[in-house]
TrEMBL record:
InterPro entries: CobW-likC_sf, CobW-like_C, CobW/HypB/UreG_nucleotide-bd, P-loop_NTPase, Zinc-reg_GTPase_activator
Name the UniProt record assigns to this protein: GTP-binding protein
Annotated family: Belongs to the SIMIBI class G3E GTPase family. ZNG1 subfamily.
Catalysed reactions, semicolon-separated: GTP + H2O = GDP + phosphate + H(+)
UniProt lineage: Bacteria, Bacillati, Actinomycetota, Actinomycetes, Pseudonocardiales
Keywords of this entry: Chaperone, Hydrolase, Nucleotide-binding
Length: 335
């Protein structure tokens, strides 16, 4: 579940429509203003399988945690076949309140996938003057989208990037026009299929060549594999120091630990980091990670990951594993 937030007119709906038409994932959408969504574009895209909406204008005023849970329950039901839920919340909804609602949610099917803040590049200064709370919103975001770059000069763009960096240091910022962001930065193109051992990011990479426009040329993608288990402490250190341009990481990590659920799925969106635990398909136990970013030194990142390999995998660093477990958000699967 991804929260898409931004002030009125910043381009959230445009971005969402872009995700719906360009991504292969099945998207469930929760909006706080039915009228603001391009319903036609969505039905043409045929991607929205369920949409929950309410006209109260403000998501966090309209629902409490159990109300939200009911909506999420509808969208996360296996019968809905939804891969990702996007909550589109206008600037009037406080991201902090939304996050609080998410944390209070008792739905175990749903994993939080990051808070994305959309900014109108052309209106940034005026919006900030009128809504000083924008500074706090930026500090909460996992990923910042600087939209409407077609309406600003290169010099303004650099200045805004500098201001955003000051307000939310180290936060990844993706400059776009018309919300044309790579869906892979938000979620998987296809659902993972653990049963046949296919990794969804393979599809994700294959998708790169299908798109007609040159959206992807702005991104660097690199993958890392290791038959040798990784050291948890060193990997966590790498993750904590990952560069701001590294928008997304995805894959599975083998720490050499043994147990029922010793496959650690890794998922990062901007500053957000989560592990979940699962089982290795037989014979496929190895670390496989995909890194997506812009302006990243892929060689240096690969070298740093290679440096996380554990030379004595038989001695699992149990205390190091505790650092990993701190980021496990989902309960251990049962059975
Ligand atoms: N020039 C330009 N216009 C854009 C861009 N992105 C969106 N727009 C236009 O800006 C207007 C607002 O975009 P929306 O996507 O509706 O913005 P929103 O954040 O969903 O707005 P609310 O629903 O009011 O919160 C629309 O007319 C869009 O076509 C962009 O990158 N460049």
């Amino acid at each position: 579940m991804v929260i898409l937030t931004g002030f009125l007119g910043s381009g959230k709906t445009t971005l969402l429509n872009h995700l719906l038409t360009r991504g292969d994932a099945r998207v469930g959408v929760i909006v706080n203003d039915f009228g603001s969504i391009g319903v036609d574009a969505m039905s043409v895209a045929g991607q929205v399988d369920s949409m929950v909406s309410f006209g109260n204008g403000c998501l966090c005023c309209a629902v409490d945690a159990s109300g939200l849970d009911a909506m999420l329950g509808k969208l996360s039901a296996p019968s809905a076949g939804i891969d990702v839920i996007v909550i589109e919340a206008s600037g009037v909804a406080e991201p902090r309140d939304l996050l609080r609602l998410m944390i209070a949610s008792e739905n175990e099917e749903i994993a939080y996938g990051g808070l994305v803040q959309v900014l109108d590049g052309a209106e940034f200064d005026r919006t900030r003057a009128a809504h000083p709370e924008l500074d706090q919103h930026l500090a909460l975001a996992d990923l910042v989208v600087l939209n409407k770059t077609d309406r600003i000069t290169g010099a303004d763009r650099e200045r805004l990037l500098g201001t955003i960096e000051e307000l939310s240091p180290g936060k990844p910022v993706v400059p776009t026009s018309h919300g044309r962001i790579d869906p892979a930065l938000f979620f998987d193109a296809e659902r993972e299929r653990p049963d046949d051992g296919q990794l969804s990011f393979t599809d994700l990479l294959a998708e790169e060549h299908d798109h007609a426009d040159h959206l992807h040329t702005a991104y660097d993608t690199v993958s890392f594999t290791s038959e040798q288990p990784l050291n948890p402490r060193r990997l966590i250190k790498f993750l904590e120091g990952r560069p701001a341009g590294l928008y997304r990481m995805k894959g599975f990590v083998d720490f050499g630990a043994s147990g029922e659920h010793d496959r650690f799925g890794l998922h990062t969106v901007g500053g957000f980091l989560r592990f979940d635990r699962g089982r290795w398909p037989s014979g496929r136990r190895r670390t496989e990670l995909v890194l997506i970013g812009a302006g990243i030194d892929t060689d240096a990142l690969l070298a740093a990951l290679a440096g996380c390999r554990e030379d004595n995998p038989e001695n699992v660093d149990e205390r190091g594993m505790l650092l990993v477990l701190r980021h496990v958000e989902e309960p251990e699967p049962v059975g």
